[in-house]
User: What shape does this take?
Amino acid sequence: MLCGGRRPAPGSKAEAIDSRPKSLHSKGEDAAGMWYEVLPGVAIMYGALCVPGIATFYLHKLACGRKEKRTARLPYQWSLMERDRRLSGSNKYYKSKGLENIN
Assistant: This one.
């Protein structure tokens, strides 16, 4: 029914609009649902967003066989890389020794 409680005239546009089902539920109430019903969808989205980052790490490790490349953007970072290269003994900054192996 439309406003005022009157029925629309047969064959009018208002009758077509009014004849749509009010709800898909048997009781005719709104589909609010419970808060925990959203958790499976959130878990799927979280997993889908985490997969690229985790896969990148393992693919890089598989392809290169070592840790990710360090970059020196500041002079202090460069000096740390040079220190690691000097202390490694193999002239490579990524093959560092532990503190117990440094003379």
Observations:
- The chain has a mean pLDDT of 75.
- Residues 38-93 form one domain.
- DSSP finds three helices and no strands in the chain.
- Residues 82 and 93 are 7 Å apart (CA to CA).
